[in-house]
Design brief:
By secondary structure, the chain is mainly beta. Helix content is 10%, strand content 34%. The protein is built from two helices and 14 strands; from the N terminus they run E-E-H-E-E-E-E-E-H-E-E-E-E-E-E-E. A hairpin with a 2-residue loop joins strand 8 (164-168) and strand 9 (171-172).
Length: 267
């Protein structure tokens, strides 16, 4: 969800999302040490010449630059889910995995509800799965605020420990904590017709904490990716205005996402 706090202007986006690859020209390396999770690029690898933390930024720029009315993140498959809390109205319709995609990496975003999606993907595409994340977008970018932003997104993501899981073709992903990172502090770069309804350009500073997986290309045929997570939705507070952390209990954020993937030969 997105909430605004004045002084500085801040948005909190629990995107539960995934994003893509505008910078996907480089080689996709396997890196070192991933014996427990074959097919997942290791946390210390540099797919497309970017580290996992740098992919957080690419993913966020991607999802925020897609109009809300067709944004894959906001897609649900049941009208009953339209009432789920989200930063923009959710929409029901056929999921199209190609929306906004380009390059060698495709993103499969999460959701704000329980969803089942069918995705057709060309062979040879690396997949980025932002399983769960919490991001703060504030502007103007105030360097002194970065430490607070980092502590806040960590606080929220810490509540997901032991409450997040993922399976790929029925095989559980091991040691998911290894795939949790914080992004560098970076501006968000928005294109025309973006999710935030802002003019195109560069805005503020984002700090993201989350679980991201990057998969080597899947074989031609059918595959299933399934994940679910629960977090405490801790409201943001503004220390500059003398506010302190709101006390619990906190509302719970839950998602369960299933992708039925068909990988087809590239044309």
């Amino acid at each position: 969800m997105i909430r605004r706090v004045n002084n500085p202007k801040t948005y909190i986006l629990c995107l539960l999302t995934g994003v893509l690859a505008a910078f996907c020209g480089g080689p996709l390396w396997a890196g070192e040490g991933n014996a427990d999770n074959p097919g997942i690029l290791p946390p210390n690898s540099t797919p497309g010449d970017l580290s996992y933390p740098e992919w957080h930024v690419v993913c966020l720029n991607w999802v925020l630059s897609i109009p809300a009315e067709i944004n894959p993140l906001l897609n649900v498959d049941d009208e009953a889910d339209l009432a789920s809390p989200a930063p923009h109205p959710l929409w029901v319709g056929t999921y199209d995995a190609s929306v906004g995609q380009s390059g060698n990496v495709w993103i499969l975003p999460g959701a704000y509800a329980t969803v089942v999606r069918n995705a057709t993907i060309p062979a040879g595409k690396t997949l980025c799965l932002p399983l769960l994340n919490q991001v703060v977008l504030g502007w103007p970018p105030i360097p002194a605020a970065e430490a607070f932003y980092r502590s806040y997104v960590k606080l929220v993501m810490d509540t997901a420990t032991d409450r997040i899981s993922c399976e790929i073709d029925g095989v559980p992903v091991q040691d998911l904590e290894r795939y949790r990172h914080q992004s560098p502090a970076a501006p968000v770069i928005l294109s025309e017709d973006n999710m935030l309804d802002l003019p195109p350009g560069q805005y503020g500073m984002i700090v993201d904490d989350g679980y991201y997986l990057i998969l080597a290309p899947l074989s031609v045929g059918t595959h299933t990716i399934h994940w679910k997570s629960t977090t405490d939705l801790i409201p943001l507070w503004n220390p500059q205005q003398g506010e302190t952390q709101p006390p619990p209990p906190y509302p719970q954020g839950y998602q369960e996402v299933t992708y039925h993937i068909t990988v087809v030969p590239s044309k």
